[in-house]
Design a protein that fits this description.
Number of strands: 11
Structural class: alpha/beta
Helix content: 25-40%
Length: 215
């Protein structure tokens, strides 16, 4: 369990609060809008209405006590930038900031953010990959050209065992698990025979996936 300061409670911030709550973390939520603060009360430990661009306000929160600070402000880049810089000045252990454009990401990283999330860009990439193929069901980029994908079993793989396919040697791909009827099996054995009733969770290079899922 971590103690997390979440600043900015728009759609992105609200969904982040809900997910962090489900994961069991302690959350302090902050926003200028009282309505937004009220909306997340069921999912957070504490919540305050306040201006995160005021250094004295942030200082009163005890920034050093939080394991993670998330700046989820999406509609005011100047406020996001100032908040990020103040958090780092006040001794934040780790600051993750939301960016909506490439140039914003660069400035946030230069001004104190340890990491940047880019939800619009990441969702656009996911959508492009997911719906450009009938055989791709989910996609997660790992960076450097690698990804974890959930794919349908290609017709030429049906009835063959993982040992027979030998994907690790032939294609540099690793089968991590198999999914059927909503259940995931992560205990993959070499003699497991594949069927068209399941999907596979596979780790590999995106270029190699394209050869398999094209069409």
């Amino acid at each position: 369990m971590k103690t997390i300061l979440l600043i900015g409670l728009g759609r992105f911030g609200r969904h982040a609060a809900m997910r962090l709550h489900a994961l069991g973390h302690q959350i302090m939520a902050v926003d200028k809008s009282e309505d937004r603060v009220q909306a997340v009360l069921p999912y957070v430990t504490n919540a305050l209405v306040g201006d995160s661009t005021r250094r004295d306000f942030l200082e009163s929160l005890g920034i050093r006590d939080f394991d993670l600070c998330i700046v989820a402000i999406g509609d005011d880049f100047q406020s996001s930038l100032e908040t990020t810089a103040f958090l780092k000045e006040l001794g934040a252990k780790r600051v993750v900031a939301r960016a909506s454009r490439d140039v914003h990401a660069k400035f946030l990283l230069r001004n104190g953010a340890d990491d940047v999330v880019y939800p619009e860009k990441q969702m656009a990439e996911w959508t492009a990959m997911r719906y450009s193929s009938e055989h791709l069901f989910d996609y997660f980029s790992m960076g450097d050209g690698y990804a974890v994908m959930e794919i349908g079993v290609p017709a030429e793989w049906v009835g063959k065992s993982i040992r027979e396919l030998d994907l690790r040697r032939k294609a540099g791909m690793n089968i991590l698990g198999a999914k059927q009827n909503g259940h995931i099996n992560m205990k993959i054995q070499p003699d497991m025979v594949l069927s068209d009733k399941e999907t596979l969770l596979v780790l590999g290079q995106e270029d190699d996936f394209q050869k398999i899922i094209r069409g």
